[in-house]
Write a structure and sequence with these properties.
GO terms for molecular function: growth factor binding. By secondary structure, the protein is an alpha+beta fold. The chain is built from four helices and eight strands. Strand 7 and strand 8 form a beta hairpin.
């Protein structure tokens, strides 16, 4: 009987102690759903292999995109898109679905990735919080060391510059 009297409080204390210490771990497992970040890969029609990843920076989310041509190895694009999806309830409630829609939107852009500042990356669930091209964080690379140049007004592909279809070659 004495064993039962001392064992029951210890058992209760151990159970409650486990609940208190397990709560933060459980919260981390469930996670702040908005903190989930997305990443992925896609291929454009002109066979550029692109990778993208997102990261939180304060109240904004930056989406970095890098594209390379595996055959030529001389055309490379890098840019960042910026948005504030935390203002969207869909992003907060279902971040995985949001990033899946962003991946689909990037695939639809095809040749406009990192080049057309008017082309927005929109998730269907958050149409009012689109990713916009950050003009100051774009670059194109022709493969030669030190030939990387930031795109000021817009990000141009070096191939387009060389063919004269997109603007003067000094932007490359």
């Amino acid at each position: 009987m004495l064993l039962l009297r001392t064992f029951a409080p210890w058992l209760l204390l151990g159970f409650l102690g486990g609940q208190v210490t397990a709560a933060p771990g459980r919260a981390q497992r469930l996670g702040d759903k908005a903190a989930e970040t997305g990443r992925g890969k896609f291929t454009t029609r002109d066979q550029m292999q692109c990778t993208w990843a997102s990261r939180d920076v304060g109240d904004t989310v930056k989406l970095s995109v890098k594209c390379e041509n595996p055959e030529a190895r001389h055309i490379s694009l890098m840019c960042q898109y910026v948005a504030k999806p935390r203002s969207c309830p869909g992003y907060l409630s279902e971040p995985r679905a949001f990033w899946k829609q962003v991946a689909r939107a990037l695939k639809k852009l095809q040749g406009k990735v990192c080049t057309d500042e008017r082309a927005l990356v929109k998730a269907g669930m958050c149409k009012r919080a689109p990713f916009k091209l950050d003009k100051g964080n774009c670059s194109s690379d022709r493969g030669a060391p030190g030939s990387r140049s930031p795109g000021g007004a817009s990000c141009l592909r070096c191939a387009d510059c060389l063919h004269g279809s997109r603007g003067p070659p000094e932007n490359c």
